[in-house]
Amino acid sequence: MTMSGARETDQIGAGLGRSMLIAYLLLFALLGAVAALPRLTAHPAAARNTPAGLAAEPSPNPSALAALAADRSQTTVTAASDGPVGWLTIPALQLADIAIYDRGLDAQRRMQIAPGLAVTHYSFSSPLGGPANAVLYGHDDIEGGVFGKLKQLKPGDTITVRLPSGTTQQYTVTGQRLVPPTAISILDPTPTATLTLFSCWPLYVDNQRIVVTAVPTA
């Protein structure tokens, strides 16, 4: 065999070696993707019920409020035909018998919010008066800003939830904290009865969420 023939043979062998290596790598990648598939699809319902972030559409600055009011149908979920699931009273915030409506998630997993001067109960959280974490939220600086003063609540303040049955449950505030809009862990179930309230903060900026927690009054 000539020198040139030997070089050609070596080049062909090297090319085949590279091709086989690439084929093996692709095979391993495919097997890894198939192995991961059950883990990705194990809990489709949980994924559907997990919000992309803590609700509350971005609030405009005061100069934009008039324009927003003229176009509410494009930015706020319309009221459901069903009635309130409860009424909220917070004496420290001068809130009395504010209607509470159930809302879930839209197709983009954004938390829906009841329009107007109303409070929203996250329907995937514990029922009002239930044994775990019942989550309530509302606007801070538009549509009446029902939770605009939420940060003023302090430990010891009282919150009352009245149900359609006439039953009332009183809660005592235990604390508050600021979290980013991605802190969806505040929606997680709790081992005991808890009331979690949150809203955007600060006014007209809304890049954080003020979270207030309360427990049934002993």
Question: What features would you describe in this structure?
Answer:
- The chain has helices at 3-41, 44-48, 65-69, and strands spanning 86-90, 95-103, 119-122, 133-137, 158-162, 168-179, 194-201, 208-216.
- The protein has 218 residues and is an alpha+beta fold.
- Strands 1-2-3-4-7-8-6-5 form an 8-stranded mixed beta barrel.
- A hairpin with a 5-residue loop joins strand 5 (158-162) and strand 6.
- The protein starts with a helix and ends with a strand.
Q: How is this fold's topology laid out?
A:
Layout lengths: L2 H39 L2 H5 L16 H5 L16 E5 L4 E9 L15 E4 L10 E5 L20 E5 L5 E12 L14 E8 L6 E9 L2
Parallel strand pairs: 2-3, 4-7
Antiparallel strand pairs: 1-2, 1-5, 3-4, 5-6, 6-8, 7-8
CA(first)-CA(last) distance = 97 Å
The total beta strand count reads 8
As a percent range, the share of helical residues equals 10-25%
Q: What is the residue-averaged pLDDT?
A: 78
Report the uncertain regions: 33-46, 57-81
Largest sheet: 8 strands, mixed, barrel
- Radius of gyration over all CA atoms, rounded: 27 Å
- Taken in chain order, the helices and strands follow as HHHEEEEEEEE
List the total number of helices.
3
Class by alpha and beta content: alpha+beta
Which percent band covers the strand fraction? 25-35%
Strands side by side in the biggest sheet: 1-2-3-4-7-8-6-5
Shape type: elongated
The quaternary state of the protein chains shown equals single chain
